[in-house]
Each structure stands twice: as structure tokens, then as C-alpha cells.
Design a protein that fits this description.
flat, 2 strands, 3 helices, mainly alpha, 173 residues
Length: 173
């Protein structure tokens, strides 16, 4: 009975030639080409219909004409402003407290997160005020349908006067 030269006792390392033969076998097995590539996409060979299935009217482009209502854009801008304002005030308070910590040593443990946590309720109150203001403005602007009887006069003279912060345009005639 002869002992196979590839044989090794459990726990013993492989011989150099056996280790290189095993490595070559593992590499061949890992990089063996597949018999058929795996399909990851599909293109339908049937062409898309060029005419509508019902009737003879050609398709008409229908552009997207959604417009954000003015009140929604205003609320979004106000919300961003409130958030940025509260964060800015919180950071300013933190910087002031950090500057004062050089004089008053008990303020050294103040963190930016702690200051922003104290400022968060003020931000929430500002957001509630923004929401209430939006609701009041929207309720005040409720649409009414007026039916006028009589002649209609169209005037094109426009005068503009600026007073204070805002400017108003009025049609006078």
C-alpha cells in the first residue's frame, strides 16, 4: 500500500505543489465563464403604435401647467425664514454665551445644541403665528361672485404712488 503524496494529516499544512494546484483549481472555478449570460434587461421587439387605437385623431401634447398657489409659496418662504431666523438667533446666542464664558466660568458648559433646544419653542411659536396669519389672510380673501348690471367702462390710465415700505398701483379715472 502506497501513501498518496497529496495526502496530509488533519491540521498539517499542504505541500507546496499541492497548495499551488489547489489555488489554480479554485481560480479556474471562480473565473469559469458562464454558459449563458444572465439577462438583466429586456427590449420589446414590437414597435410602439404610432396611431391611437380608437378613432383617427392624432395625439395632442398636454403640457404640465400646474402652478403653485401664491399663498402656498408665501407660506413656504415664511417657514424657511422662520427656521433660518431661529437658527441664526440661536447661534448668535451661543456665540455671545461662549464669549461671556471667558468672564463667567459657569457658562463654559453651554453647547450649541442646548441653545438651539431652548430656541426651538420660539421657532414653534413663530410657525404657529405664520400658520394663523396664513389662515386669516386666506379667509379674508374668500372669493365672492358679483354680478354687475350696467355699462362697463375700461380705463387704462395707471398711476403709481409709493408710500412707506410698500408701493400700491391704483387705476384712477
Amino acid at each position: 500500500m502506497t501513501i498518496d503524496p497529496q495526502y496530509r494529516a488533519p491540521g498539517q499544512p499542504l505541500a507546496e505543489s499541492a497548495a499551488s494546484a489547489e489555488a489554480a483549481r479554485l481560480i479556474r472555478e471562480a473565473y469559469k465563464p458562464e454558459s449563458a449570460p444572465i439577462v438583466t434587461s429586456y427590449r420589446d421587439p414590437i414597435p410602439a403604435p404610432t396611431a391611437p387605437t380608437i378613432g383617427t385623431t392624432p395625439p395632442v401634447p398636454q403640457p404640465d401647467s400646474r402652478i403653485v398657489p401664491q399663498w402656498a409659496a408665501g407660506v413656504a418662504v415664511a417657514s424657511i425664514g422662520v427656521g433660518a431666523g431661529v437658527t441664526g438667533l440661536g447661534c448668535a446666542a451661543w456665540l455671545v454665551l461662549k464669549g461671556m464664558s471667558l468672564v463667567i466660568h459657569s457658562l463654559e458648559s453651554v453647547t450649541l445644541l442646548g441653545v438651539l433646544a431652548v430656541a426651538a419653542p420660539f421657532g414653534g411659536a413663530a410657525m404657529v403665528a405664520t400658520a394663523i396669519g396664513t389662515a386669516i389672510a386666506k379667509a379674508r380673501r374668500s372669493s365672492t361672485t358679483n354680478i354687475y348690471k350696467g355699462s362697463v367702462v375700461q380705463r387704462t390710465e395707471i398711476t403709481s404712488t409709493a408710500r412707506g415700505i410698500g408701493a400700491r398701483s391704483r387705476i384712477e379715472g
